[in-house]
């Protein structure tokens, strides 16, 4: 099996978890109270929301794939790929969640992709 599958599975589950969490939290229209104790109560309650829980499970699965990737790659080879996650979240956020974008964000995204390519290739 191609060991890069571990890296791309890590990215997939990381991004999926983040998108699921953002989507569900937006649906719930949560506003955290000012008190620390009240915040803790609200956060504990939402952890048991099925979609929020799936988001956390996705992050956990990403960690398992990351551990598998660490058995196959040096961290200096594998970790630059992780910088693709914010780019994927950005693209999904803009196209599927109606989030805003600007020329600065697009330039930043292009630099992330270029930086990942240069870091891994050279």
Largest sheet: none
For the residues shown, what is the average pLDDT? 91
The helical percent reads over 70%
Order of helices and strands: HHHHHH
Q: What is the percentage of strand-forming residues?
A: under 5%
Alpha-carbon Rg, integer: 17 Å
- Distance between the amino and carboxyl termini: 24 Å
With helices defined by DSSP (H or I, 4 residues minimum), what is the helix count? 6
Distinctive features:
122 residues; mainly alpha; 6 helices; 0% strand; globular
What does this entry look like structurally?
The chain contains 6 helices and no strands. The chain is an all-alpha fold. Helix 5 packs antiparallel against helix 6 (103-121). The protein is globular and about 50 Å long. Helix content is 81%, strand content 0%.
Architecture blueprint of SSEs:
Blueprint: H1 4-28, H2 36-47, H3 50-70, H4 75-82, H5 84-97, H6 103-121
What's this model, at a glance?
The protein is an all-alpha fold. Helices cover 81% and strands 0% of the residues.
